[in-house]
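Schema walkthrough. Field components (list of strings):
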Amino acid sequence: MADKGDELALRAGRFFSRSATDPGLHTVYKTGGREGDVFYRDRWSHDKVVRSTHGVNCTGSCSWRVYVKDGIITWETQQTDYPSVGPDRPEYEPRGCPRGAAFSWYTYSPTRVRHPYARGVLVEMYREARARLEDPVAAWAEVTTNPEKRAKYQRARGKGGLVRITWAEATEIVAAAHVHTIQTHGPDRIAGFSPIPAMSMVSHAAGSRFLSLIGGTMLSFYDFYADLPVASPQVFGDQTDVPESADWWDAAYLILWGSNVPVTRTPDAHYMAEARYRGQKVVVVSPDYSDATKFADEWLPAHPGTDGALAMAMGHVLLKEFFVERQTPYFVDYVKRFTDLPFLVTLRPKDGAHVAGRFLTAADLGEDGEGAEWKTVLLGRGGRPVVPNGSVGFRWTDSGRGRWNLRLDTDPALTLHGRHARTTEVLLPRFDGGPGVLRRGVPVTKVGDHLVTTVFDLLLAQYGVPREGLPGTWPTGYDDPGEPCTPAWQEAITSVPAAKAIRIAREFAATAEKTKGRCMIILGAGTAQWFHGDTMYRAFLSLLMLTGCQGRNGGGWAHYVGQEKCRPFTGWAQLASALDWSRPARQTPATPYFYLHTDQWRYDGYDAGALSSPLGEGAFTGRHTAELVAQAVRNSWMPMAPAFDRNPLELGEAADPVAYTAEELRAGRLRFAADDPDDPRNWPRVLTVWRANVLGSSGKGSEYFLHHLLGTGSGLPAPDGTAPRGKLDLLLTLDFRMTSTTLFSDIVLPAATWYEKHDLSSTDMHPFVHAFSPAISPPWETKTDFTTFHAIARAFSELAGRRLGVRKDVVAVPYQHDTPGETAFPGGRAPSAPVTPNLVVVERDYGAVAEKMAALGPLAERSGLPVKGVTFRPDEEVAWLAQRCGLAPSGVAKGRPLLDTDAKACEAILALSGATNGRLAAQGFAELAERTGTDLGGIAHRDLRITFADTQTRPAQVGPSPEWSGKEAPDRRYSPFTVNVEHDKPWHTLTGRMHFFLDHDWMHEYGEALPVYRPPLDLGTLVGETGEGLVVRYLTPHSKWSIHSEYQDNLIMLTLSRGGPTIWMSVPDAAAIGVADNDWIEAVNRNGVVVARAVVSHRMPRGTVYMHHAQERVIDVPLSETTGKRGGIHNSLTKLLIKPTHMIGGYGQLSYGFNYLGPTGNQRDEITVIRRRSQKVRY
Amino acid sequence: MSWIETALWVVAPYLTLLVLVLGLVWRYRYDRFGWTTRSSQLYEHRLLRIGSPLFHFGLLFVIAGHVVGLLIPESWTAAAGVPEWVYRFFSVTVGVVAGVCTLAGITLLIYRRRTTGPVFLATTRNDKAMYVVLVAAIVAGLLATMLSSGLGHHDYRLTVSPWFRGIWVLRPDAEAMTAAPWPFKLHAAIGMLLFAAFPFTRLVHAFAAPIGYPFRPYIVYRSRTPR
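Field assembly_structure (string):
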């Protein structure tokens, strides 16, 4: 007893109680009185637990236990039953984060969409016309074509007035809009936007399948989000393939470059912490003191957007010390076998010196056999030219069968230095603001008439690594600040001390040498989402390729930016594109689509040549970026919707639609829609958004969307009065919560949440597939996306059968990657003459759309399932599905396996994918082995077969498959390109190796044939973005309290965070304009206005502000002082800027693929003015 | 004696007691987990730290004063040799000081409640009504205390106290109460209203004061009741 008084009280207390007290006066023993326990027992009791997860916008793919009590979802907890990753390494379980744990709040929240809604004015006019005309399609036609009526409902968008309607009326209006649009304008005027299929594959596929069957187009998302690292197709010929997070544990050296793993990959961040106990060194490159920095051994705070310079300088050190001063055997052997460094490049004269030309090919050696122009050349033993196996010339030719592999059969010369006496100066562009161009010497030799050098020699010139006997201007040493790419040069650009850059480069390379490539770079949005993000990435990837880290467990790039891997890819693609019924499906890259249709192109005042190389031929000079978009479309490099200024069904009515269309184009009577996007014939008419929030989260240039595409009020400071407004007839959104997109939509359909449906989830972060399951049936009038699209399809088919019937649709198809189309333009030459588009006629039975949607079509087994150049033959699987799912009893799908429920669709996806069906994977590898001539027999796990029930029981580990590039097994973590490295399987590139050098005309024009440093865009000079006051870099990274727009409106997350719109600023910046923490500020630039409160933090570097991504207009957004209107969202200040090189097509790995290649919707080069505003805000 | 006075001093006391007792039983049975002050300390603590003790300790003295004044007959104090003027002097000084403290405390608490956003957001209509009654009771009591001293010279121990004691023996002396000046009547009426409101407001927390806490060991084992 500490206190006499206490003791006295306790002793006295014994006399007032019948309970026994222990002699020490610590404890009293009572009997009964536990009635209160009941309350707490009841609080945590539940009727059932259901496995589900969170969809669409999170990479986590964490399996959760959802608790239900009295038919009400009560809470969720993390699942812990992930299969083990084996001994001696940390496990995946449990996975989750506070955001996921807060999800069940949405089920019964005030923001839940409970009933179908429509814009009041629209539905009144529609009902009136419908009653008068007695026809839904005619009614829709009248409302949308009468200028007054059209303006009336379009202007009302986003201004309230949504009224409840019935499901029957909603589907009727939607169906009528689709029928009218197909009839009047063409099916390619209908588009759908729904991202990230991996996180609810069936919900995505349901809508996509409907649109694909009617001939509508799906819009891409990965490139539009600027999550696509274009460097990946450029270098690897692969969209993105990265290690699972458990492989971080295998890394000996880890650099986090522009990635904030604890915030954006919360459930996986533990591996980073754990690997440090294993002796891993962690280096963080980030402009701010980010959450990841806390884990780091070293922090390199490079200025935003200058990371490329640091990487180039590290490459300089690495090449000098590990390739020139000392030849590291592991590195040299690796780059000879797996990269394009030994390949020969022609040089052509320019300005008294030379510039790099193109890869020397077998055709240049005088061969004229199949694919000679596509077979690249290197110097073998004794300096004679050798055409090694593995280039794309062996991939699609008959003679290439069995030879598309990486066997060299010779020891290629990496450099000509020391072998050949001749040298010449090459001119290299510089973009760092330094004077002129670089003149640096390379050793050369003659092959036939061609003066050639190797990619490696060019690379040393580019990185400024001098060697004896070479002419030109070279850095005098690491401390030379004037010559790219020395450590001192980068210090002036990035502010990272040169000595530190040298040390990190040495440590990185030395570790890679000792561990045989176990150095990893985790890359993030901080480096990816710049206009020149691809050049930055190529500088990073060069470090990894030079040190032999790709294709090694614990090594290589790890790009985690939205890339949410749909592991059962083939089955999903089959369903989503309705490839089982008709091929091909229409697909459109969303960035140029929205660039044209939201009229953002009109505000690009700059000359497309302004960003070209000083060594370019002036191909872009005097041209507008929109012209280059149109040219890429005309070249069939890239698809666009609409394709032509005429209804493709009308073109299909000709006797020979393909010949007729080609002739009309040639005669000039038919034009590409991209040539005149503002012609009303070329407008998009119907846009359906589901599982997405384009107006609150992803739509860069938000105010342009509102002004031009929707035709409603916007915060655009200087709208172009000559541009059309209100292009879209119908904006339809399916969502479970009210978002910016639903608020602007004409019709809003109430969706089921992720705890209310069957679906599938997978991710690149872990190797499992697991199920969504309904904990409750969709409450109120909500429906799953699957049910909704089937309801729409039935309403549509009913209206369309009579009005549209069976039609022929002319589809323009671009040259596609992983098809023979990737060898369309030899030598990477941009065509000067018009290209005849590749046209395909697709028959559409409009009355049978609903029936086709609900059954697996015959093309699945008849034509096989194509994936990355391999074709799966699912005959056994289709028979199994027929038994498992039942057969359609009648109609066009009679006798086909039914897909009429979401669970059956899940079953079909798993059965038709190699990752979840070992039989298909083995068959695919066998087919692939015929092409490579190498042994791929042991890779697949033939007996692996994951059914939907397996994924419901616990997360199921997938197996290796030709769909992906890595090997995996219960005792082996997934790392990309391990199949390539371990089995001599080529990359899907021009040379079949990883590329440092890209020789396409447009790459030369942009000066990016080799890795190069390009600084952030100077928007002041380029588009005149200037302002009075504090001008800062405006970045929109992800936040701790939300995932995209999700959770930022969740009461629990609002409570944990500051809540409402905020902009993070540095202490000196805030002081400069007299802003204190939590003051209201306005950010203003040429694109719009944002009102937010300032978070003044020492975390932030001077000159940069962060407005965390996707803070929507639904929470605490007041009126702006600048416009008097409601003050914008994070994307009010951004605008799409298109980099022409992203549109290259028909050339090896630079060929189109949906979400594989396309212009990125980058936004990080943006700047803004920040002002303190009146602290009195009105709403 | 008018019917109003009869209703007030004969019927109302028993109605109040009935409502208080049955109300507490009802609250205990149906809202045991709502038996709370709904503390707002999490939202604001600086003003609360001054206002709350000021009010509560003031109130304890006020209650003690009521106990002495109402339950102890004047004859008893006289028998103990305490002259009326001495008793009055102490009762008025202590009463006024305690009453002013209580009033100052509640004023601060109400000010805090109105001006601190999160606290005001956590304030229900029930709370607001309760505050009106509580403040009215205190003000009326203070007024009566002051009137009974220099201002009015009324000896409530001859009017209010007999009536109050009579209530407990089922013989409320309404006549005595009728003779009291109006401030005392007002105070008594509001007091009854306040007690009637107890079970239905946050005032109920007064019945859950942790008095036993200092007198029991800090570890409590509760075995199940044998079935």
